[in-house]
User: What shape does this take?
Amino acid sequence: MAGYAVPELPEVETVRRGLESLIVGHVVDTVDVINPGSFGLAPGRDVRRDLLGATVTQARRRGKVLLLDLSPAEPGLAACCLVVHLKMTGQLVVQGTDEHWGAGHPNASLVGVLPDKSTRVVITFEDGRRLFFNDQRKFGWLRLMTPAQAAEIDLIATMGPEPLSGDPWPDFVARVRRHRATSIKAALLNQSVLAGVGNIYADEALWSASIHPATQVSALSDDDLHRLLSAVRDVMEVSLAAGGSTDRTYVDAEGRAGSYLSFAHVFRREGQACPRCDTTIVKTRLAGRGTHLCPCCQVVTKPHA
DNA sequence: CACTTGACCTGTCCGC
DNA sequence: TGCGGACAGGTCAAGT
Assistant: This one.
């Protein structure tokens, strides 16, 4: 079963919340880049000058991208941020000891376990706690930039609305309507349409809204799209409450797995009964991705022949 | 411009 | 038991 539950919005947000409580306010002591390909420097940036002695002030998220803001070690130096994309197998895990957060903390089990062979970057803070960037497949990255440089990353500059912030509907419907000739699943996976949706929550939301993933965007009514956006929001809220989805590699900032997959209706449930109509769930391939659906009740609009 | 496909990686699983 | 190959998926570059 070569399936992964990879970091999407709920997983990245879970990591962000952990980092907010674990490393905001702490000062960078050392940076150890074990795999240079995992660590990038924007033009003009320098690890020693911009990062060593800098204090983490904030942990932000935009879609699946994490941004750790830092105030400079000395006045006059640029405020920077560490921009992180976990891609498929990336992890950001903070390791501490009983001295840091008390005996019996689940994180204590990480001492002696990390670093391991997937560890690409290690950042040590002033009190000895360590932030590990692990990434089995080396697709993920961490980049030192200024906030302005981060905002210019194409992925961020063109990203669609946040599903869980404010009212994303007007922006979402305008953006999704630009892609009328493609399948609704491909449109959902496009980060410029809606931020943070990946393969798991696309399949789950489409099932929830009873929409076939291959349906052309142009065949969907505003009503359908509104119901779909609500479904995205709902599945992401449920996943956040469950700490995200873990199949193999995803863990939060304290090294804990998430349990959303036990609540999933169709994702990686091919061969099982649809919870709504009892028809057998099938797995197909669409938009280059494994796609799970109920062939009976996801019929809002049949895909065009 | 809209849309699709391949590349980037590594570990795991399946068939022989 | 070993080995080759298919497969997993986020994003970008290149192709249609």
